Amino acid sequence: MRNHALMHVPFEGPAGIGVWSGQHGHSMTLTRLYAGETPPGQDDFDRLFVMGGPMGIYDEQEHPWLVPEKRFIAETIAAGKTVVGVCLGAQLIADVLGARVRRNPQKEIGWFPIELSESACESAITGFLPPSLEVFHWHGDTFDLPEGAVHLASSDACRNQAYLYEGRVLGLQFHIESTPKSVTDIVANCADELVPAERIQTAERILSATAEDYARINSALFGILDRLPG
Question: CA–CA separation, 60 vs 83, rounded Å?
């Protein structure tokens, strides 16, 4: 399989998604939108991953590449391909599908649990997961559920944590692709967001995650990617 990822900043790459691709013998190519690169043609990849970033989907004046990126995501969905969005990526997909993206009442940064919906527990793609799972978060925005999408997960701070559209377009507000390096990188680059708040953990708490924590979330990611079509 030819996997392709859209990157918005140099410190939020595929991480565990790249590990999964390598384990299965899939290729992984990248478009570094922040560096002026343009996405490939639709014939040049099979599955699309839309990664995270500290900007918002509405920051088009500051990041004009968001406009053609949204068109590219829409074209990829229309082509019938599997698309996975992480954090900003999930928000971009929601926006492309006509849903509203807005500020969440509070930022959610750190290791917090999500609760799976009944639909998620019954899904062939996510039904193998436990009803509650502690995952890594780093977001200040949220999205409405796109029309026709299945609601998959929520947290105390954010109702819409995950959704599935047409059985092949997955939006994940949280980061189960995280690795120790990717978390260290985002802490180093976005440390100004780590201010005292109810749902914002300290850098020390975030970086104290164990190998077992990363194994748990990566196992969830790998299981989902194994079960998605395409």
Answer: 22
